[in-house]
Amino acid sequence: LELAIGIDIGGTSTKLALIDKTGHFHNTHSFPTGNKNQDTPYIDRLIDQIKPIITSFNGTAKNLLGIGIGAPSTNEKMGTIEYPANLPFDGILPIVKILTETFSLPTFLIKDASAALLGEYYFGKGRGKENFIMITLGTGLGCGIMVNGKILNGANGLAGELGHVPVHLSDRKCGCGKYGCLETYVSARGLVRTALDYMSKEIIDSPLRKLSFDTLDAKVIYEHAKKGDELAQKVFSITGKLLGQKIAELITLLEPSSIVLAGGLAEAGAILTDPVLATIDQFLLPMHKNLVQVTCSNLPVNHAALSGAASLTWVSSQSSISYTNHPTKII
Amino acid sequence: LELAIGIDIGGTSTKLALIDKTGHFHNTHSFPTGNKNQDTPYIDRLIDQIKPIITSFNGTAKNLLGIGIGAPSTNEKMGTIEYPANLPFDGILPIVKILTETFSLPTFLIKDASAALLGEYYFGKGRGKENFIMITLGTGLGCGIMVNGKILNGANGLAGELGHVPVHLSDRKCGCGKYGCLETYVSARGLVRTALDYMSKEIIDSPLRKLSFDTLDAKVIYEHAKKGDELAQKVFSITGKLLGQKIAELITLLEPSSIVLAGGLAEAGAILTDPVLATIDQFLLPMHKNLVQVTCSNLPVNHAALSGAASLTWVSSQSSISYTNHPTKII
Predict the structure, then answer these.
(1) Across the interface, do A254 and B291 touch by the CB < 8 Å criterion?
(2) Which residues in chain A are closer than 8 Å to B169, comparing Cβ atoms?
(3) What is this model's ipTM?
(4) Closest Cα partner for B299 from B133, B138, B124, B144?
(5) pTM here?
(6) Buried/exposed A145-163: b ≥16 CB within 10 Å, e otherwise
(7) Long-range contacts of range B189-193, CB-CB < 8 Å, 24 or more positions apart?
(8) CA B41 to centroid of chain Cα atoms
(9) In this complex, how many residue pairs, one in chain A and one in chain B, have their CB atoms less than 8 Å apart?
(10) E strands of B121-183, at which residues?
(11) Which stretches does DSSP call E strand in chain B?
(12) Which residues of A are less than 8 Å from B164 in CB distance?
């Protein structure tokens, strides 16, 4: 049995899993990514978590192919994580070099959105699709684009910032400093902002009016929408409509064979996708109508990123870096 | 000397040229594409134009590599032009099969926007750029996208319709049936529409007010703008601003290394590009600022499409079809 370690480094937690080439998960655990004030640096805490996984291979017939990492702020060419905004270290972490030297295993690094895209491509709704787009709706809005069977990285690895394309002229401020970015509307946080905005403009009564901005979250809004609350439903329909408009633009420009929605917000299912689907057609050229599948991912949350990262160890052509390609050794 | 015949089929005229692998033009001529009422069908008139070119090779040491065609409404996989809106024939024309059988030469077909993209890629501002976008501003707005050194065609060859992405909520009707499409603003015709709209809203005097919609064209507006007419300049600045906003979206999403503007309207130069460049930065993420080159093509008008079409005969990997790949024979 051949297995790879997939690692998904996020701001809140770091997930690790042992995954085989069919995308089956054999083992998975996570630890808090933590903060800068901890005694043990992040990279040492990560190494401590990887060690027992590797040791577990001793004396078995299983073969460890290597380590694949998905992370934010990556420089894939250099195998480094650089000046991350939400990770507990500063400057440049040469993570591929460090893990390669520590474990003598082929180690690969790819940006988090691309890891999720590869997971969908090999094991999810993107399987067999050479041209598809994945939109991840979590705290923010992430996007991965596959073109001709290769990840669209852009000239400097900075492509795919769909979350920061403007919705329309809007005075809603984004964390990036601009106004009206798509993720200020279409994301878990965006849903809460739209709820507040809608409450301020309309007079429909709703239990949501008893909740503060800080206690409101996407899940609460979803649960009220499901129970029939008109205001909560309207918030989803506004959000879905804006997402539908942008998806229509993506289809007009890139004509993928499908668009896969993933992340926490996509778990809302039809409450979100109904207004998305109802909107798309209005904004498409006749030749693009009913051509592109828009669906929600059927992979468990995080599995796309973990299996996509792991897949780099057996399909290294998708990674722009293979820091080492010496044969797999288990230490 | 190795040469190829490049053909650019347009609604008004069909251009033919003999081009070598360095992109040098040895011979070029054109004939009116004509209409459906002509006695001789279009394909026969085209064959009559190709014949003397091929005959001219007799008794020379020159080698004819084949024929490359750029056309609208192509089905590249089948080598056919299908139900064209602006060409003088109906239904499906199996142009690759007919020309291959007539001349026993390798013949390739690609859509017009892709031919122009390849011309820029091999001989123009896209040279050496694996990720770049070409925007052609003519009667309408065309777009070609290169990703990882391959043309982005979309899942069914229907990608690149940047002209039909909405600018913003607008009541300006497009030929496609939708409202507010980018090409209703950013194109030669769009410029005229914006001039009328602006005249209707503002009270600035201008010689343009003496001209009817039908006599106004992009060239007249350009000439008045160059002479300092405030209204004409304002029309270019509105147009450039809208184009700049969309280019910023393209950069945010696709991060090409450069964006090349071509076509008649791009010949306006700084009058158009100054407002484009001034607008882009406002809509970009900090990491994307000053990263992407936005320039006008330096190839003569039509040369990009002709040389791109011709290049298919020596770089057939960019074409999705090679109807025949038997060795070049001259008949």
Answers:
(1) no
(2) 168
(3) 0.90
(4) B124
(5) 0.91
(6) bbbeeebbbbbebbbbbbb
(7) B189/B139, B189/B140, B189/B218, B190/B141, B190/B239, B191/B218, B191/B221, B191/B235, B191/B236, B191/B239, B191/B265, B192/B216, B192/B217, B192/B218, B192/B221
(8) 25
(9) 118
(10) 132-137, 141-147, 150-151
(11) 2-9, 13-20, 25-32, 63-71, 74-75, 80-82, 92-93, 107-111, 132-137, 141-147, 150-151, 258-262, 293-296
(12) 252, 285
For an interface test with A, which of B147, B258, B282, B294 has the most A Cβ atoms less than 10 Å from its Cβ?
A: B147
pLDDT by residue for chain A (331 residues), tens only, comes to 899 999 999 988 999 999 999 999 999 999 999 999 999 999 999 999 999 999 998 888 889 999 999 999 999 989 999 999 889 999 999 999 999 999 999 999 999 999 999 999 999 999 999 999 999 998 889 999 999 999 999 999 999 999 999 887 788 999 899 999 999 999 999 999 999 999 999 999 999 999 999 999 999 999 999 999 999 999 999 999 999 999 999 999 999 999 999 998 999 999 999 999 999 999 999 999 999 999 999 999 889 999 999 999 998 656 544 443 333 333 3
| Opening angle at CA A84, ends A80 and A88, nearest 5 | 100
Length of chain B in residues, anyone? 331
Give the residue from A109, A108, A6, A101 showing the smallest Cα distance to A329: A101
Q: Which of B117, B255, B282 should we substitute to test contact with A (largest number of A Cβ atoms within 10 Å)?
A: B255
Q: Do A321 and A109 meet the contact criterion of CB atoms below 8 Å apart?
A: yes
Tell whether A129 is within 8 A of chain B (Cβ).
Answer: yes
Output the six-digit token pair for B290: 């000053």
Give the number of other Cβ atoms within 10 Å of residue A198's Cβ.
Answer: 17
The residue among B295, B264, B116, B296 whose CA lies nearest residue B191 is B264
Could you say which of B150, B158, B178 has the minimum Cβ distance to residue A148? B150
3-state secondary structure of A207: helix
Task: Please tell me if residue A101 touches chain B, with a CB cutoff of 8 Å.
Answer: no
DSSP B15-83: EEEEEETT--EEEEEEEE---TT-SS-HHHHHHHHHHHHHHTTTTSS-EEEEEEEEESSEETTTTEEES
Residue B168 CA to residue A57 CA, distance in Å, equals 58
Q: In this complex, do A254 and B129 lie within 8 Å of one another by their Cβ atoms?
A: no
Residues in chain A: 331
Q: Do B162 and A255 touch (CB under 8 A)?
A: no
Of B159, B249, B291, nearest to A254 by CB-CB distance is B159
How far is the CA of A300 from the CAs of A124, A263, A304, in angstroms? 10, 9, 8
Joined together, the tokens standing for residue B318 give 């960019």
Q: What percent of chain B has pLDDT over 70?
A: 95
Give A261-307 as a DSSP string. Answer: EESGGGGGTHHHHHHHHHHHGGGS-GGGTTTSEEEE--SPTTHHHHH
CB A255 within 8 A of CB A291: yes
Q: Is A278 on the interface with B (CB under 8 A)?
A: no
Nearest CA of chain B to the CA of A135: how many Å? 12
